[in-house]
Structure formats: structure tokens, C-alpha cells
Write a structure and sequence with these properties.
Blueprint (H helix, E strand, L loop, with lengths): L2 H4 L2 E6 L4 H18 L4 E7 L8 E3 L4 E4 L2 E5 L1 H10 L4 E2 L1 H5 L8 H8 L4 E7 L4 H14 L5 E6 L4 E3 L7 H20 L3 H9 L8 H14 L2 E10 L1 H4 L4 E12 L1
Parallel strand pairs: 1-8, 2-7, 2-8, 3-6, 5-7
Antiparallel strand pairs: 1-11, 3-7, 4-5, 9-11, 10-11
Helix pairs in contact: 2-5, 3-6, 6-9, 7-8, 8-9
Length: 254
């Protein structure tokens, strides 16, 4: 049995806020990956918050440095994925100012304890067609590869307004909105999840990367989900003026 065949985890949804806010939730997913077995390559999908660079950007060479050392881009596989796609561009500039992928790297380095290889794919185009196209490029080029996908996203972003009179009601609505997204994810319903994000019915920043992960799961077949955790920044800060939701959800071979 190969390392790929012995592992169950295909991907995980992981938040990307400051570690003091969402680190506990992110750690739940990485702990499970560490116990499942470290893949040869992590493919990290993140949203582009600034809009800088191409609509879908990949870096195909080089390394990223954190306080834990260097993480090397899996150049051969990254180039294959890029060439297989009509919409993924090589654009290092996007990654120079974006945090959604960057904050995942130390978690990967910590659990790997060895040479780390990853592929960063960053998108400000998060529509359903684009997300599915990225998924197809990944699946086509990773057959017989030992990989895990990290879909980097926070969930509801709520800035309190003067109309929010009841703090408990506001927090309840955030929980309800995030539950709608979580329910769509656990059903592997990429259409509903993407619509919730595009219409801002759930103000999640990385609905495109999550849609791509769902699409990958459906292309692979025999994949199920496992909900791990959900928290909000309010549980850390007790500040109701700006609340963000965080979730960790596994995608596993059935």
C-alpha cells in the first residue's frame, strides 16, 4: 500500500486570521493531517483580498521563508497544473502581499518536521466556473500523486452597525449564517456554497477556494466530509463591533 493509499484526508478547510484569533480552529485540521500522514505536497488555495495581480495566480518556482525556515514550491507539479489550465497564470506579485496562503505555511512546517513542498494558488475570481476549472486542472495533474488541499477561508465577517441593538441576536445570526455554509459544504454542494458567497448571504472571503475543494472531491468520488470546529473572534476578543467566523472541515476518502 502506498503512502497516498494509506492516507484518508484529501483536503481541509482552514481559517487564515491572526493565530490568536483562529489558530485553535486551524490547528484542529492540521492535527488530523499529522495523524493521518504527511503528504508529499500541500496545494494551498486562498482568496486574493487585495485584487492585485491575475485573476488566478500560481507561483511555480522558489521558496517561502517563515521563522520556521524555508518551504519549497513543488515546481514540477505546479508547472503541470498551470499548463493544464486556461485561467491560471504565473504571477508572483499576487503572493507578495497576500496573507491567506502565507499563514498556512507554519502549520505545514510544524507538522511535517522535514522538507516541505507546497503549491500556492490565489484567486480573486471566485465564480463557480472558475473554481471548477481549477479543480479539474488539479485532479488531472495529481493522479497517483500524494497531496492534500488546504482551502483557506474565514467565514462570516460582521461589522456591527448602529442598528445592531441586541448583541446576542447578532451573534446568533452569525452562527446561523455560517451554519448555512457549513451545511452546503458537508453536503458537497458547490453550487449552493458558491451562491452563498457570491451573493454575500454568507460573507466568507474564500468561498472560491472552498468551492474548488468541493469540486475536487466530487471529481475524485467516494469523498465524505467531517466537521471539526467552528468559533468566532468574539470568543477571543469579546469585541462585538467586528466579528469573524472560523471553521475547520475535513474531506476524507470514504
Amino acid at each position: 500500500m502506498t503512502a497516498k493509499e494509506s492516507r484518508k484526508i484529501v483536503g481541509v478547510i482552514s481559517p487564515h486570521a491572526g493565530y490568536s484569533y483562529s489558530g485553535q480552529v486551524a490547528a484542529r485540521g492540521y492535527d488530523r493531517i499529522s495523524r493521518d500522514g504527511i503528504p508529499e505536497t500541500f496545494i494551498i488555495l486562498g482568496p486574493n483580498h487585495s485584487g492585485r495581480g491575475s485573476g488566478v495566480s500560481i507561483q511555480t518556482e522558489g521558496a517561502w521563508e517563515t521563522p520556521l525556515g524555508l518551504a519549497q514550491v513543488d515546481s514540477p507539479l505546479a508547472k503541470q497544473i498551470q499548463k493544464a489550465s486556461e485561467i491560471i497564470d504565473i504571477d508572483d506579485s499576487t503572493h507578495s502581499t497576500e496573507h491567506s496562503i502565507e499563514v498556512q505555511i507554519p502549520f505545514i512546517q510544524f507538522i511535517s518536521e522535514s522538507n516541505v513542498r507546497f503549491i500556492p494558488i490565489c484567486s480573486w475570481m471566485q465564480d463557480l466556473e472558475t473554481s471548477r476549472e481549477i479543480a479539474k486542472s488539479i485532479v488531472d495533474q495529481t493522479r497517483n500523486k500524494n497531496f492534500v488541499i488546504i482551502a483557506s477561508s474565514d467565514f462570516t465577517h460582521h461589522e456591527r452597525s448602529f442598528t445592531d441593538k441586541d448583541e446576542d441576536q447578532m451573534l446568533k445570526k452569525i452562527e446561523e449564517d455560517d451554519k448555512r455554509a457549513i451545511d452546503a459544504i458537508t453536503r458537497l454542494d458547490d453550487v449552493t456554497l458558491n451562491a452563498l458567497g457570491e451573493t454575500q448571504k454568507v460573507t466568507m472571503c474564500g468561498y472560491g477556494p472552498i468551492t474548488t475543494l468541493i469540486a475536487v472531491a466530487k471529481l475524485l468520488g467516494s469523498v465524505k466530509t467531517e466537521f471539526l470546529a467552528h468559533k468566532t473572534s468574539y470568543e477571543i476578543t469579546r469585541d462585538p463591533t467586528y466579528v469573524v467566523g472560523y471553521s475547520s472541515i475535513l474531506f476524507l476518502r470514504d
